């Protein structure tokens, strides 16, 4: 076979060279999304807001309590279940449940009531699969009001449970 290159052979060699060059080049890859940023975005979409030591969600009307009541309403149980499942899918491993009261009544009693409210919510999280040791429970009584306790509507807003998480 002759070592000379025919015009037809040069065309094939040029075409093969183009294929090899194109095949070897790589498109710039997209940077992998930061898992922490993805969690933060998902928490914001759920209504969480940054707090001093993590992210907090006050479930509003769904986790407000009547005066001297520590059981979660059916609407509240559904909200807790949905939230607990969603947090699990985000890879959140620990939850802090904070109970609160208005300022009516004895401070020591309110501290206990707020802790019972937190425990009630924590038990619903356990029912949907959260491990009890992954849930921190705190009772703040009337120490952290979000509204004015001088009005009935303000007191109602203060009888609540807040769920807080850390993003790692």
Give the full name of the CATH homologous superfamily: OmpA-like domain
By DSSP, the count of extended strands is: 5
Rg calc:
29 Å
CATH class assignment: Alpha Beta
Mean pLDDT: 80
Strands, helices and their partners?
Layout: H1 7-24, H2 35-46, E1 49-51, E2 54-58, H3 74-89, E3 95-99, H4 107-127, E4 135-139, H5 152-158, E5 161-165
Parallel strand pairs: 3-4
Antiparallel strand pairs: 1-2, 2-5, 3-5
Architecture overview:
With 168 residues, the chain is α+β, with helices and mostly antiparallel strands. It has one domain (33-165): OmpA-like domain (60s Ribosomal Protein L30, Chain: A), CATH 3.30.1330. The protein is built from five helices and five strands. A five-stranded mixed β-sheet has the order 1-2-5-3-4. Strand 1 and strand 2 form a beta hairpin. The longest helix is centred in the last third of the chain and has 21 residues, at 107-127. The N and C termini lie far apart (68 Å). Mean pLDDT is 80; it is low at 9-27.
Brief overview, please?
With 168 residues, the chain is of the alpha+beta class.
Which key phrases capture this entry?
60s Ribosomal Protein L30, Chain: A; 168 residues; five-stranded mixed beta sheet; alpha+beta; single chain; elongated
